[in-house]
Amino acid sequence: MTWILVLLLAAACLAIAVWWLRVPRAMWMALAAALAFGLAGYALQANPGMSSAPARGAFDAGGEQQDVVAQRQEFIGDEDRSTANLIITADAMARRSRYADAATYLAGVTEQNPADFEAWLALGIALTEHADGALTAPALYAFRQAAALKPAHPGPGYFLGVSLIRQGQLLEARQAWAETLANAPPDAAGRAGLAERLARLDGLLAQIAAGAPAQPPAQPPAQSPIPPPPPGNTDQ
């Protein structure tokens, strides 16, 4: 029931903006993306049947930042775990929203050991968080390096999809997650969680398609989730 109300509210907002406020057609796509972003966040994070939590401080340490670290650790098996002590320091920085400091520590780890998969993955996440969810060129490079070390690992593709969702690019995120899941070994760490999140995203996309009052303009074909690194030594 809650989902029906949420979708009706989103559809009503879009209809009001288009027909009553007469938002220019050129802005329809941006408005639809903003609504889709909000619905994606609700689908992936919310639990309508759960009672409200006790009030906490607005910047309670260990909230969203703790989740970022915990999500990465969900995708790290024993064979993927970094042996660098600075990973612990970088995680502490990330939990305090000090993503630039975390990235500095992690860059030092990757410089000393370019084969450290977890450090590259953590670096990509820290750089993305530092840019408020935007997939910057340095973050994409870090994810590429991690993917080059372990091409079938679901971690880089998962976090790329998270970044795309935060930018409202749900279809591109869906493609990234689907390709990542298809390439991941059955026993890969984090694979089950990725499959569950992909199913929830598919459900959200189906609900958006069923309740959308108007079709947005067609998007260009999405690119491959993580473009291959340039030829040559990827450790540089």
Automatic annotation (TrEMBL):
<feature type="compositionally biased region" description="Pro residues">
    <location>
        <begin position="214"/>
        <end position="236"/>
    </location>
</feature>
<keyword id="KW-1133">Transmembrane helix</keyword>
<keyword id="KW-0472">Membrane</keyword>
<protein>
    <submittedName>
        <fullName>Uncharacterized protein</fullName>
    </submittedName>
</protein>
<feature type="region of interest" description="Disordered">
    <location>
        <begin position="209"/>
        <end position="236"/>
    </location>
</feature>
<dbReference type="InterPro" id="IPR011990">
    <property type="entry name" value="TPR-like_helical_dom_sf"/>
</dbReference>
<keyword id="KW-0812">Transmembrane</keyword>
<feature type="transmembrane region" description="Helical">
    <location>
        <begin position="25"/>
        <end position="44"/>
    </location>
</feature>
